[in-house]
User: Fold this.
Amino acid sequence: MAKLWGGRFSKDSDKLMEDFHSSISFDQKLYYWDIQGSIAHATMLGNVGVITKEEAATLVAGLREILEEIEAGKVHFNPADEDIHMNMEVLLTEKVGDVGKKLHTGRSRNDQVAVDMRMYLRHEVLTIQAQLLEFLETLLAIAKKHLETAMPGYTHLQRAQPITLGHHIMAYFEMFKRDYQRLDSWLDRNNIMPLGSGALAGTTFPLDRNETAAALHFDGPCLNSLDGVSDRDFALEFLSDASISMMHLSRFCEEVILWASQEFAFIDLDDAYSTGSSIMPQKKNPDVAELVRGKTGRVYGALMALLTTMKGLPLAYNKDMQEDKEGVFDAVDTWKKCLLIFEKMLATATFKEQNMRRAAAGGFTNATDFADYLVTKGVPFRDAHAVVGEAVAYCIMNDKALDDCTMEEFKSFSPLIEEDIYDKISIDTCIHKRQTIGAPGPQQVQAAIDANQLWLDGAKATHEAQAEKLAILICITRAGQQCPAPFSCAIREAEPAGDG
Assistant:
């Protein structure tokens, strides 16, 4: 079959070469964004007079028909046409005739794929942000419910000091809030349009790149054509953001797995989000958490793969960059699935408050408070530390907790100790008296919840505004069809090309 680029070649590509070279098996995922970019490009070509307005209207109408046919399952992409861009051009020319061959005027597949990938990722970022907002709401709800639920805080996986489950959960809230904010930053930095960069050096046609950028809701066109077609920082940055968030999920999963064990017994996962054993009838396995923990490596791998691909490439476009897509697509799908399933698993879990409290009371988690008590009596902290260390050693030898010591025993550690020691080292006091900003005292945790609820409400409003802005464009392009997630705007009638 003759290639659209085959004019200077004297023979066809080898079949093995065609199979190796083709990307349509995976980049067909970009069909919607490719059509969207092409509609904006065709409209602009008509407005600047490179083609007639009638030709532009024909191209736009044909592209919209192809979109409807693809989404109705009536289109089968041809591997011989290599990629989504050439498949679209062939389909369009078959539909509207030779005018379809004019669509590619003033552009290259190099800038075309760059704009497709940016639009695809922009949409997915908004989708993931919507999931993060829902997850953050779940975390806040759990934290509110467990302001007073005592549990041990750990260092080195050893019981360290008593905290609350609400405080622990809010630590993860802060992590996933940063994940959301990183995506905000991604949107601010990467909403730049490469279309019009051509293969690498722009074009001699009088393209209005500002018009195309505005039509596609970019903040503006890129300012260097070489960078426009060879930049994959936006994909690397996304994969980095995804990797950090998956790391946060994996850490949380590790704790859920530990908490669900009989050794900890802090949490009971809902049957709907657990599995059993094919041989051991008693088993209830935290497979959701284990799978999320395992899938983190896939996202890390995508980041490392693309970094390695890009590290040796001279400007501008190189075919190596075709390798950017599969890893990004997989990372997007993995992150979304993991956020969805983990949130459902956590929201339906039951926390075993009494077990947590018993664990908080064990392991001498109140030892630091004992040392602080001695400091209030005038003992230098380092000396107090030594006294309490000796007291802990004594209690271990005699198989008792600090709270179980008699006043006579306490006096043997230090004559400064008085009856108020029992109140000062009780688990509730250890938690409640920690009132510095960010501490586990319930008042401080409540203050953090209140502040983060305000932030969350603001983030939701901003996100809805961003989604609505892009939804207008999507609804117009889809000619009245329902908008994809995360957009939920009212369905709009298609407007004439160039009027929106």
Notes: The first strand starts at residue 150 and ends at 155. The radius of gyration is 30 Å.
